[in-house]
Amino acid sequence: MPKKYVIANFKMNKVDKDVKFYIEQLLPKVKDVTSQVVLAVPSVSIKTAVKETKGSGVVIASQNINENGFGAFTGEINAEMVSNVGAGAVIIGHSERRSYFNETDASINKKIQKALKAGLMCVFCFGESVYDKKNNLTESALTTQITGALNNIYGNELGHIVFAYEPVWAIGTGVVATNAVIEKTLKLIRKIICNLYDEKVANEVSIVYGGSVNESNIKDIAKIANLNGVLVGGASLDPVKFSAISEAFGKTVPKK
Ligand code: PGA
Asked: How does pLDDT run across 165-187, given as a tens digit for each residue?
């Protein structure tokens, strides 16, 4: 069975003690879920989150890294730093970073290379804007973003990348993409990856959906064949809602 991921993106929310409290609340609720739970916490709380989730199977992620190694980049954090404090993953190329912090496909590509080198799993985000959607430009937007991000990345490294399809018009808007749109886009993403590598690589990549996922619409979204999970922003901030979302991808049945 392909692996499923349920990824929380706290964005710029929760001080350290709230991250600790959240994890205390969440862990008993997700102990039987079959999907890989990932929590992308603010970087100042990575250490706390790693400590609090030790032995639980939950993976802690950074929400960003700088594309450089060590050096004079005041205020920045690199892949080795987040890996060294125990993070296992990093979100790269989120639409908020692309629009507010001028991230480009080229810088995203460098970040992915650095993250892979540091042994981090990459949650690579991409998606079309409202403009792209209205003007029938989804295919070209996704092709540009995916092709740019994967420059100089080998096919055998794609197992360490989770492709997060996040249409910009669905992020934080309450407008979730329909299953038909997600299914159609999953095929498109695999076609783009197939053109860059081959069919085997394209069929094996993990693709998750993000954008206004919540505890109600997850039941429908989880029915999509070939979808490897979800990336959740707003609804991930509440451990009750986030555990309900995690459960939608299955729970182990306790032995009698
Ligand atoms: P949302 O955010 O679930 O609040 O729409 C998703 C994301 O930005 O990753």
From this structure: 999 999 999 999 999 999 999 99
pLDDT of residue 68 exceeding 70, the answer is: yes
**For 93-108, how does the pLDDT look when each residue is reduced to its tens digit (9 = 90+)?**
999 999 999 999 999 9
Catalytic residue among 94, 96, 128, 215: 94
Pocket test for ligand 1, best of 13, 95, 231, 237 (most atoms within 8 A of CB): 231
Cα(207)–Cα(192) distance, integer angstroms: 13
User: What is d(CA 235, CA 215) in angstroms, rounded to the nearest whole number?
Assistant: 7
The whole model's pTM is what? 0.96
Which of 234, 174, 237, 177 has its CA nearest to residue 207?
Answer: 177
| 3-state percent helix, strand, coil for the chain, nearest multiple of 5 | 45, 15, 40
Residue whose structure tokens are 């003690």:
17
Six-digit token string for 191 = 């076609």
94 part of the active site: yes
Q: Whose CA is closest to 109, among 157, 63, 64, 152?
A: 152
Spot the catalytic one: 67, 103, 166, 215.
Answer: 166
Six-digit token string for 89: 């993953």
Tens of pLDDT, residues 217-249: 999 999 999 999 999 999 999 999 999 999 999
Please write the tens of the pLDDT for every residue from 148-170.
Answer: 999 999 999 999 999 999 999 99
Q: In this structure, which residue's CA is closest to atom 3 in ligand 1?
A: 233
DSSP helix/strand/coil, 159: helix
